[in-house]
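Researcher: Please translate sequence to structure tokens.
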Amino acid sequence: MPDELIEFVSEDVDFTLPNQEPVAAWLTTIIQNHPFQLQNLTYIFCSDEYLLEINQEYLDHDTYTDIITFNNADEPEIIESDIFISIDRVKENAANLNIPFLDELHRVMAHGVLHLLGYDDKSPELKQLMRTAEDNCLSLRKF
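Model: Translation complete:
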């Protein structure tokens, strides 16, 4: 069951993801559309400051970001990951883009999974491919 393999927790913020079971099912569908096997996926919702500390400590980046994805899998085509998402940053980005918070959150959640599935966003061309893949993921939502 998706809800056993995908976990949603909060650190340093008071946030609970709504519709956890349908969201877990949606994320599982995204993964199942690729030749990958889901073993464990943990989303950690946190504050800007919490994620900044992780960015500094593990990636030597001194910048705020909305998401950091850690691929913990020992084998290719296995999904085992911790994905940290700044709720502060997602709220700000949603306001700046004038879109609902949950739409932006779902886009960021899909973005993390897409990285695990091999998508990259290091160049303008790759960013466009990532955005198209995010849009495709969002179109799969049934909640």
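Researcher: Any highlights?
Model: The chain has a mean pLDDT of 96.
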